[in-house]
Amino acid sequence: MGAKKYLRTIGLGLSGFFLLLMLTPTAAPAAAIEWKMQTIYPASDTSTPCIAEKIVNTLNDRLKGKLHITLYMPGQIVPEEGMFDALKRGVYDAAFMAPTWYQNFIPDAIVGFGLPLGWQGYDMDMEFFYKYGFLKYMRDIHAEQNVYYVCPNPFGQSTFLTNFPYRKLEDIKGKKLWCIGTTAAYLRNLGGVPVTFPISELYMALKLGTLDGTSGALSDLDANKWKEVVKYVNFPLNINPNNGAWLVNLKIWNELPPDVQKTIEDTIMELQPEMWKCIEDYGIAGVEAAKNAGVQINTMEPSEVQRLRPAALKVWQDVAKRSDRAPKTVQMLKDFLATKGIKIE
């Protein structure tokens, strides 16, 4: 074959090769997995910017092209009271809520929310979950409901915000306060009257005097404007802090690639201190705003605090009766607190 003919043959071959490349469809990049996540707390609640939005925005940035989460406010996908059931059935993918809202499904998960006069502060709370083994325990008991418990999210320091001074046990007897969960049981044991209705109606109920107070986080004083309708912030804190929970449908979680699962869990661990500082800063600002508005800060004497403990203990005992497994769940927290010198008895 002559040189010219040889080169022409090669040229035609290359042209055909490149034409074939152009005509052969190329595999498109895999589309990002799309998740719908609903929070049970409104946009005005401090947990929204500090926790729900922080988690979603950070993960969307770090997992761009792999996972994208759209955050929905309460009721935008399903009603608040149906969130857990819809999550376990796979109606949507992820939720930010608290065990107080799904006690009917996992009665002893309320221990992960916090029991009155239990752990004292964020560090102790996180140690119980991450070092004492309670995180794995919570994951195991949620898995029974087809839900993956990603992490606890401390979202507030709960106390009684009242229109009466709460300086001794007798002061709260017969008083009507809005509260839910174990705090409602605690108030009832103290002799108070727990009342529950949509939180959107709470401001007006306090303003009109229909209620004598509410259980609320320190940050609620400013964020929800309770400073305008209460006269006292009372210490000690009832639960310090309360824990929300970031939950994912277990089947959806298991379908994630391992590297995406790892990024989610590593990111959560990294964000925990930052998210708590955000909540804590809102709490500090809330107390200052309340003081500036004329709300009085009331701190109960230690001897009077001791008189509250039987009411708290009864809550713990009642939680331990909720299921066959509940005594073990409560005992885990008691044993942990004993290592900190806190005895619940």
Class by alpha and beta content: alpha/beta
Task: Classify the beta-strand content into a percent band.
Answer: 15-25%
Low-confidence stretches: 3-12, 14-28
Tell me about the biggest sheet?
Answer: 10 strands, mixed
CATH level 1 name = Alpha Beta
Distance between the termini: 101 Å
- Tell me what the CATH architecture is: 3-Layer(aba) Sandwich
Number of individual domains: 1
What share of the residues lie within helices?
40-55%
At the fold tier of CATH, the topology name is D-Maltodextrin-Binding Protein, domain 2
Helix and strand string, N-terminal first?
Answer: HEHEHEHHHEEHEHEHEEHHEHH
Overall geometry: globular
Notes on the protein architecture:
The protein has one domain: D-Maltodextrin-Binding Protein, domain 2 (3-Layer(aba) Sandwich), CATH 3.40.190. Helices cover 46% and strands 18% of the residues. It has 13 helices and ten strands. Strands 1, 2, 3, 4, 5, 6, 7, 8, 9 and 10 form a ten-stranded mixed β-sheet that branches. α7 links the parallel β5 (176-178) and β6. α2 packs antiparallel against α11 (258-292) and α7 packs across α12. It is globular, with a radius of gyration of 26 Å. The termini are far apart.
List the helices and strands and how they pair.
Layout: H1 3-23, E1 33-39, H2 47-62, E2 67-72, H3 83-88, E3 94-97, H4 110-113, H5 122-130, H6 134-143, E4 147-162, E5 176-178, H7 181-190, E6 193-195, H8 202-208, E7 213-217, H9 220-223, E8 232-235, E9 239-249, H10 250-254, H11 258-292, E10 296-299, H12 302-319, H13 326-338
Parallel strand pairs: 1-2, 1-3, 5-6, 5-7, 8-10
Antiparallel strand pairs: 3-9, 4-7, 4-8, 4-9
Helix pairs in contact: 2-11, 7-12
